[in-house]
Amino acid sequence: MTALLEVEGLTRRFGGLAAVSSLTLAVAAGEARALIGPNGAGKSTLVNLLSGTDRPTAGAIRWAGQDVTRRPAHLRRRAGIARTFQNGRLCERLSVLENVMLGALTGLEAGLLDAWFRPVRHAAAERRARELARGALTLAGAEGIEDRSVDALPYGTRRLVEIARAVAAQPQLLLLDEPAAGLNSGEKASLLTVLARVRERGVAVLLIEHDMGLVMSFAERISVLDFGEKIADEVRADPRVIEAYLGREGAHA
Ligand SMILES: Nc1ncnc2c1ncn2[C@@H]1O[C@H](COP(=O)(O)OP(=O)(O)OP(=O)(O)O)[C@@H](O)[C@H]1O
Ligand SMILES: [Mg+2]
Description:
Strand order of the largest sheet: 6-7-8-3-9-10
Number of helices: 9
CATH topology: Rossmann fold
Largest sheet: 6 strands, mixed
Radius of gyration: 18 Å
CATH class: Alpha Beta
CATH superfamily: P-loop containing nucleotide triphosphate hydrolases
Number of strands: 10
CATH architecture: 3-Layer(aba) Sandwich
Helix content: 40-55%
Shape: globular
Structural class: alpha/beta
Distance between the termini: 38 Å
Bound molecules: adenosine-5'-triphosphate, magnesium ion
Strand content: 15-25%
């Protein structure tokens, strides 16, 4: 297996706390991977490190064979790593289409800033972004709401628009930080359909999720994080680990 993403010895300390500790992880092109772990395990911290929102204290991140450990977030997006945020980060005052177009522009080769300062390329970039945004909204099952303002959307629809925005950047890897949190069972079923469509495009997905039903329906491989350390990989082959985890989560509830 040639890994698209390779993480080695990744560590992020906040003072005395190692939120992510000596983590090793490989994700293959097109893979459906889930990452589970209790609250505070370091899942969001890992997404921040992989997307370039945060920098590790130690360790390396390789993307398509290149070291991107110090590469800024906008360049990683352009190189094919997209993410959503656990708490959502849509621009409230923009329309649905504008939000998703912003996602598309971040993924364009020329880049938003480049295109912005050149009128001709700007028009071309905007056309392409509009096209990508519409495609992503259709994929996310959120078509027909292009002109609506984001702040007027129902919660479940917002979450789909967030995924559309990430997909519009044409990633090869999509990092989803608890996309099903707060969704009802019908919305979770729709989310699963959307994730399947994302994978049909050949996009690898790293799904962080507490909903084990969703995780088991989606993932080919499951990694477990606890206190910043990866305690298991490929746990589908070892149901005892899942059971132990479910037991603990059950005890939390
Ligand atoms: N910026 C920060 N400064 C200090 N501590 C932080 C920071 N970000 C995260 N932490 C700590 O790092 C640990 C891991 O947090 P993280 O948000 O990555 O967990 P998580 O697995 O995403 O949890 P959840 O399931 O609740 O989203 C926690 O103990 C958290 O308090
Ligand atoms: Mg989190």
